[in-house]
Amino acid sequence: MSLPELSKLSLEQTSESHPVSEPDPHGGDQPQSRADPSPQEEDDMVTVFTDPANFNVKHPLNSSWILWYDNPGKKTNQHSWSQNLKQIICFDTVEDFWGIWNNLIPISDLSAGSNYHFFKEGIKPMWEDPANDKGGKWVIQLPRKTGEQINQLWLYTVLSCIGESFAYEDEICGCVASIRKGFYRLALWTRSSDDQEICLSIGTHLKETLSLGPNQSLGFQAHSDASRSGSFKKDRFVV
């Protein structure tokens, strides 16, 4: 089961399923009360009393996901960095995700150098992984003074990722939050970096999900470009 548009917290779905009555055009300002359910509707209702065994059933995600964490502290080489990378927990249901999320330290409270990674099970959050080596990442970087907003943007990024809301969902590998001394960086990792149509579709959807302002943009960087020591490459795509 996917999490349809959970990155928007589904306010629209709430209003659709529980519409607000229009005010009385003749001056009344009280919405009409909902009619009592008919006997047939009462018979159709499912509650914990009618099915106590399955009422609290968990809702599976389309994929299993793993939360990783690292904080290397001092600058390290690739080998020591991979040794510092820790697998925290695997989850595959909506309920398990929220149980984990509600016990995580917000990224705004993490020390500089820390990184959270949410990746599909079977994919490690490193360039060398076969699922990542030909891919890239959509990146947004924000100053540390962003404060609470960065926590919200990170949540929306994770929800769109694990909720598999992208048109090219098979392209999504995972997402990363990086905390640095002067900025935060959020990144969505993809399998490929050369197909412009696919890359732009993913980037555009992510930008809409994050509700970024007109002066805020996302840039796409290929892992192959970033891994060339001493080289600097401009973003391949920008949305």
From TrEMBL:
GO cellular component term of the entry, any: eukaryotic translation initiation factor 4F complex
Listed SUPFAM superfamilies: eIF4e-like (SSF55418)
One annotated GO biological process: regulation of translation
Chain intervals for the UniProt region annotation (Disordered): 1-43
Entry annotated with the keyword Cell division: no
Native source species: Basidiobolus meristosporus CBS 931.73
Domain of life: Eukaryota
PANTHER family in the record: EUKARYOTIC TRANSLATION INITIATION FACTOR 4E RELATED (PTHR11960), EUKARYOTIC TRANSLATION INITIATION FACTOR 4E1-RELATED (PTHR11960:SF8)
Keyword annotations of the record: Initiation factor, Protein biosynthesis, RNA-binding, Translation regulation
Family (UniProt): Belongs to the eukaryotic initiation factor 4E family.
MF annotations from Gene Ontology: RNA 7-methylguanosine cap binding; translation initiation factor activity
InterPro entries found in the cross-reference section: TIF_eIF4e-like, TIF_eIF_4E
Protein name, entry field: Eukaryotic translation initiation factor 4E
UniProt signal peptide: none
